[in-house]
TrEMBL record:
PROSITE patterns in alphabetical order: D_2_HYDROXYACID_DH_1
Pfam families attached to this UniProt entry: 2-Hacid_dh, 2-Hacid_dh_C
Family: Belongs to the D-isomer specific 2-hydroxyacid dehydrogenase family.
Protein's name according to its UniProt entry: 2-hydroxyacid dehydrogenase
Lineage: Bacteria, Pseudomonadati, Pseudomonadota, Gammaproteobacteria, Oceanospirillales
Species this chain originates from: Marinobacterium rhizophilum
Amino acid sequence: MGALSGAFNDRLASLYPTLALWKQADPQAFLQEVGAQVELIVTSGTYGCSAEVMAAVPNLKAIISFGVGYDAIDMDTARARNIRVSNTPDVLNDCVADLALGLMIASARRIAEGDRFVRSGLWGQQPFPLGSRITGKRLGILGLGRIGKCVAKRAAGFDMDIRYHNRRPDPTTDYGYEASLVELARWADYLVLTCVGGPSTQGLVNREVMEALGPGGTLINVARGSVVDQPALVELLQDGRLGGAALDVFAEEPRVPAALLDMPQLVLLPHLGSGTAETRQDMADLVFENLASFVRSGTMVTPVG
Ligand code: 8YV
């Protein structure tokens, strides 16, 4: 249903009779016509599946999603109608964590800015500003789940001091727990977001949190744009009340606020967290395993609870 790769769609169409909702100029009108024939929906983590789409598919049995985050799927409707949902957890942990570290280093060491400086022929013409060290600095992690733990493991290699905030302390880890997100932000030099999206974290990184992170702090977001109060982020960055940001995700992708584009010190990426050939292949394989399993037995390999 969502914007998945050509190779993925070809593989899907070679195995199952498919209807390409994403190709339709008016998806809702198309669904009114064909919705009753549809039993399974394959979608992406970012496209998800709205209550409106589900309403137009009365015989829907399962939603098989390509992505770990399922915040774009209306889970209340799915539960109420006993529509099964699967996602693609774990296979992308390493690549998302790698990118979080990459964003942190790129931001601190001004890598993207330096690249533009060289390309524009300014090297030798004017000085390039100094960056900041990451080794030994303080890293706060919001959401020490599977991806957050992979971030922590990598950051330990940079001798970073690591603390985290979850709803509850995680008894399986020795990293310091901070019960207050504002206090975690006040302590941290870098605040990395690896929590889930959706209503439970909507706007959690609010003005107060970003002010606590402060002019010496940098926000790294590889989670969901919805976790951050984006207008406040823009304002605090403009005023220098927040030091920096490196963002892979935005509130209304693919739209990025023009004000962010005007700040050269920021690092902005087009939602690349899981975007490596290897991880996308693993995610695709897991989607097909879920699909085959559901068609065969009505069960899924990685169901969403
Ligand atoms: C994908 C993601 O880019 O897994 C997720 O939740 O956001 C990403 O891995 C997306 O699902 C692919 O469209």
